[in-house]
Design goal:
CATH class of the largest domain: Alpha Beta
CATH superfamily of the largest domain: GAF domain
Strand content: 15-25%
Number of domains: 5
Number of helices: 23
Helix content: 40-55%
Structural class: alpha+beta
Largest sheet: 6 strands, antiparallel
Oligomer: single chain
CATH architecture of the largest domain: 2-Layer Sandwich
């Protein structure tokens, strides 16, 4: 057969006259949308079309003469050379879509995923191969898959950051940067809703416009961009700000050339807490893929916020527990010291020489009052950690409020009026009378400080069958379904902001200037009410005063309450035989003096072992065991009492301690017939406790 007269045989027999086949093929090669390279057997590029130059980052002239190995990433170049050599020995057509993962290297060193079709021309008598190259990143499905992979990578980065850091601000700062980078937009920001629910605060952002700098507050009403998201409670897409009518578009957005936006809310356990928003200078920039990514980003951010808050709450609880343990240890030593001080002062006060000296009586009285204040301070420290030893009893709220009001009228600023609204038939509550009075006094003092120019302090007590919803969840189901008495203290003072209200019960939190408040007032109220199986609520508004309401359980079928005078009349039998066990020698000496002046016959022991040995020799010589719980090394007072009761069942038991936690544990674990006495105590309190255990021990 005669060979063709041209390199490529004519295949276009219907060409118009004057149109050369060569020009048609050259035009096809130049205008073809895929990248085309004509490569010789040595791998050298002979021809390249503009599409190839654009894809690979070269000029057409730079590609001609270049070896195709230069277009292959360094890591796979040796393998590619071997493949090209084998292909040259047996060239064959290879269409696109062969599922091969191919990568081309651009002039600048960057890489692009491609598909390549090979068309050998040897069958046409030419020693070339045509390589058609297509950027698969331009495929809609591939482009979408790559976009999703990029989004997933950013989400994974944020997830790792959220796990690794304990600083919430670091996460807040990264979220807008990641959103802007992943979505290729100009503006991204995080806005957090303030506790007042009236404003948003710009927490972090990139590309922020004037008026939205970090820290700026933005109203949360529905006419602002974030406020509209708050009102809707769902994602909001803005296709074009110039056509937006649902809310007011700030002029700064338009001045910055911003056109479209996407904003998604995020929540903390169902409560709206903020907005994540992105903005672009392109119209209709955001679709379903962008929405899903931003929602995932906001969910991760919300999870980080929850984790940080949970860790802070746990840390706060651990600090309280640590403080409680510390104060418990301090209280034991401090209360022993106070027992010694108060006991010796009481004995000193009754000495004939002192009793007849008015000046000496004043000095003793001042020292006694100071020691009582010391005991009250210890009680306050114990109260907020709920380690105080409560002595619940029937409290007549009507009588208590009137008594407290009388005292406050004498001590508060005369410009503060006091009103009481407590019906005589208001049920009694079951609470520690002293602690309840102290709680109400703390609230009243806070109210006084909130009314520097005077005002009205209003006490109110009324029965309520059920707790209001805002405090119902604070109690167990069993406790929450009882009946309560609501005791409220309202003032006409400055009120609190939402932020202050949220922290009002935190220990050591105070808004008062240095030296005017410890921050223990309301925290002790909270601890006392919770320990009393009640609840407490605050209603307040800046400039509109504050109302603090205590919800305490009603007392059903109250037993008659013995007065202190009646208790005093319960005389201890003369010659009452007492085994006193106390490891502190000074405390032991004071208590021994108390017992002797009460007419008791006393044997002392420094530890449980000595006490058991002394009682074994003459079991019938004792009527009462009076023992401290903490007795140093060896057997504790509770164990000693159990041993004594097993061996001598008729013996009355009275335990004492300066550790409130010990008394609480004993209150749960020991028999009801055992009495618990809190240090420091007076001789009268000791006498009443002894009378009580003797009455309980009688058959």
């Amino acid at each position: 057969m005669k060979p063709p007269s041209s390199p490529i045989a004519p295949i276009l027999p219907g060409l118009p006259s004057g149109v050369e086949e060569g020009s048609v093929f050259r035009s096809l090669f130049v205008s073809y949308p895929d990248s085309l390279l004509l490569v010789d057997q040595a791998g050298r590029i002979v021809l390249a079309n503009p599409a190839a130059a654009s894809l690979l980052g070269y000029a057409v002239d730079e590609l001609v003469g270049l070896n195709v190995d230069a277009l292959v990433p360094d890591s796979i170049r040796p393998r590619h050379a071997s493949y090209r050599e084998a292909y040259g020995r047996a060239p064959r057509p290879r269409p696109m879509g062969t599922q091969m993962e191919l990568v081309a290297k651009r002039k600048d060193g960057s890489e692009v995923m491609v598909e390549i079709a090979l068309s050998p021309l040897q069958s046409q008598g030419l020693p070339f191969v045509v390589a058609a190259i297509r950027d698969i990143g331009a495929y809609p499905r591939v482009k979408q898959a790559l976009q999703r992979a990029r989004y997933s990578d950013h989400l994974a980065q944020l997830g790792r950051l959220a796990v690794d850091t304990r600083d919430l601000q670091v996460v807040l700062d990264h979220v807008p940067a990641m959103a802007a980078q992943a979505l290729e937009v100009e503006v991204a920001m995080v806005l957090l809703l303030e506790n007042s629910r009236l404003e948003f605060r710009v927490a972090s952002g990139v590309g922020l416009v004037p008026g939205e700098e970090i820290g700026v507050r933005i109203p949360s009403h529905a006419n602002t961009p974030p406020g509209f998201v708050f009102a809707e409670g769902r994602p909001v897409v803005v296709a074009d700000y110039s056509n937006e009518r649902r809310f007011s578009v700030p002029q700064t957005y338009l001045d910055a050339g911003l056109v479209s936006a996407l904003a998604v809310p995020f929540y903390d356990r169902g409560r709206f807490i903020g907005v994540l928003t992105v903005r672009s200078r392109e119209a209709k920039r955001f679709g379903d893929e962008e929405l899903r990514f931003l929602e995932s980003l906001s969910n991760l951010l919300a999870t980080s916020l929850q984790r940080v808050q949970t860790e802070e709450a746990l840390s706060h609880a651990q600090r309280l527990e640590s403080v409680g343990q510390l104060t418990g240890g301090i209280a034991h030593d401090f209360n022993n010291l106070l027992t010694i001080i108060q006991g010796n002062l009481q004995v000193l006060e009754e000495l004939p020489a002192i009793a007849e000296d008015g000046y000496a009586q004043q000095l003793v009285g001042a020292a006694a009052r100071a020691s009582r204040r010391g005991a009250e301070l210890t009680g306050k420290l114990l109260a907020f950690s709920r380690r105080q030893m409560l002595q619940p009893n029937a409290v007549d709220t009507h009588a208590m409020l009137h008594s407290l009001a009388d005292m406050l009228r004498r001590t508060l600023d005369q410009r503060i009026g006091i009103a009481i609204d407590a019906a005589p038939g208001c049920p009694s509550v079951l609470a520690d009378p002293g602690q309840l009075e102290s709680a109400l006094l703390n609230i009243a003092i806070n109210a006084r400080d909130a009314m520097p120019e005077g005002g009205t302090l209003h006490f109110r007590a009324e029965a309520c069958g059920a707790l209001p919803p805002e405090v119902h969840n604070e109690l167990s189901d069993r406790d929450a379904h009882g009946s309560f008495v609501a005791i409220s203290v309202a003032d006409s003072g400055t009120g609190m902001t939402e932020e202050v209200k949220e922290r009002a019960f935190e220990p050591f939190f105070t808004t008062k200037e240095a030296g005017r408040g410890t921050g223990l007032g309301l925290s002790t109220v909270y601890g006392f009410v919770k320990q009393s199986k009640g609840a407490v609520a605050i209603a307040t508004r800046p400039g509109a005063g504050t109302t603090v309401t205590l919800y305490l359980p009603q007392l059903y079928d109250p037993a008659p309450v013995a007065t202190e005078e009646q208790d005093e009349e319960q005389a201890i039998p003369t010659g009452l035989r007492v085994m006193l066990v106390e490891d502190d020698a000074e405390v032991r000496r004071v208590v021994h003096t108390f017992l002797v002046t009460l007419g008791c016959s006393v044997v002392t022991a420094a530890n449980a072992e000595q006490a058991l040995l002394g009682m074994e020799t003459d079991a019938d010589s004792f009527d009462v065991l009076l023992s401290d719980i903490a007795l140093g090394p060896g057997m504790r007072g509770t164990r000693l009492a159990a041993e004594v009761q097993q061996r001598f069942p008729k013996l009355a038991i009275l335990l004492m301690s300066g550790f409130s936690s010990e008394l609480l544990d004993a209150d749960r674990d020991v028999p009801q017939s055992w009495e618990l006495l809190r240090k420091p105590y007076t001789r009268g309190e000791l006498a009443r406790a002894l009378a009580k255990v003797l009455a309980a021990a009688r058959p």
